[in-house]
Amino acid sequence: MTTSDISRIEVLKGSNSALYGSQAVAGAISITTKRATEIGTEQSATAEVGSYNTRKLSYSYATKTEKGEIALTASHLSTDGFSARDENDGNFEADGYRANRLSFYTDYQVTPDLKIGVNGFVEDTHGEFDDFVGDVGATSWVETSPGVWEPMFVAGTPGDDYTIRDTKGARLFAEFATGAVDQKLDFTFYDIDRTSCSNGWCDDFFGTRKKLAWQGATDLGLNGRLVFGADTEEEEAHGESTRTNGVFAELSYAFGDNLDVTASLRHDDHSDFGGFTSGRLAAVYRFSDDLLLRASLGNGFRAPSLYELYGPYGDPLLEREESRSAEIGIEKRFGDKAALRLTAFHLKAENLIGFDSAATVCGQDYGCYNQVDGDSERSGVEISGDYLVAPKLRLGGSYTYTDSSISTGWGAVARHDLSLFADYAINDALSSTLSLQHVADRPNGLADYTVANLALGYEFAEGKEAYLRVENLFDEEYQLTSGYGTSDRALYVGVRASF
């Protein structure tokens, strides 16, 4: 998805199925689209051009009254891109991307106790990619002897590997109060129509997801609040369907002024994979207003998707994934001048679903989804902070140490990941940000890398800014995934305005 219509992104790490259902096996991401921040009308627009013939346009309109609000964002992104398979391995063809997106939100306060609304989006994209062997040719598998399959390379056609995708989604909701209980009723719908073509062969995928959810909440005196509800979700794809029914409750309670505890419990019943009970316990202890200790425990599960089960690379015998996670952290603030956060974490998963490209394992030409043997565990620490060195200069950074030495099927996670940044206001109109990331001790033979980015912004009028962004400032050659390319040094310029 593109980011033009996003105002805020929140990431909740760890197993959170008790709060968000079966898909939150390792975390949840909450994305809030742009809306008016106060009574009145707000508009914004952005235009950007840059490397790889990249063009980006967006316009947002939002208005809010005492009775309701309307928000609308339209955006376009197109780029010629760079080779999906690394150009340093002889791949010559750029793989481009194009996306058009329209999102909307509206609500209306019918009575003091009833609000109704609808929000949603439509998006169409066209993205190019490379064969498993890149631009040098296409691959097929030949059985050279009984049970032995070997790759055969044939001439590829530049530009014939692409995916076209049309997606749309909507949410209708009502919020109302009945006595001491605040209630919310949601109906959500999501639809995807995707065609992926490679070397003249196209794979079609059509899928829908429908969900009806009810939630109630009530205060338990001055210190507690109880949230409870139920939902039912149906997914359809490839002529197959599944349904998941769930019930949940969450109790939050403040033990005095220093300790807050939240306990969540959920039970889901999946039409193919049976019942599963998930829970989460979280607590925050305040030594003082600026010193916090927090901890959480949770578990989760994820049923295989219909594509993983019944798609062209699917395996109908896959089992559900299950996870358990724990973390403990401390946060210290030094007024508005500095902050420091430290978190230790552990995550364990069973029955991870991976992808095996070996035809001898899957029994089909291009591999299949499979159940990874054994358990996968990750543990480590994260530390982050920032410091206002001077009125116009703020420094900050984060470091993550991850031990995934006994993990299987979880990809290439580096042991060390260090990020640093510096925000400097050159004058009242001109600002700058320099960021740097260093990733080291990577598995699977991947090399360490260091990437720097630079951004400059110039406010030439109130609410109007011109900017320059340089990504991969020192033109580092690196790979995030073995065999796949990343951007060379790239420069982007644009203007944005709010009015």
From TrEMBL:
Annotated ranges, domain TonB-dependent receptor-like beta-barrel: 51-473
Name assigned to this protein: TonB-dependent receptor
InterPro entries: Beta-barrel_TonB, Beta-barrel_TonB_sf, Plug_dom, Plug_dom_sf, TonB-dep_rcpt-like
Phylogenetic classification of the source organism: Bacteria, Pseudomonadati, Pseudomonadota, Alphaproteobacteria, Rhodobacterales
Residue ranges annotated for the TonB-dependent receptor plug domain, each copy included: 3-28
Gene Ontology biological process: siderophore transmembrane transport
UniProt KW Signal keyword: yes
Pfam families: Plug, TonB_dep_Rec_b-barrel
Record's GO cellular component terms: cell outer membrane
Record's signal peptide: none
Membrane topology annotation: Multi-pass membrane protein
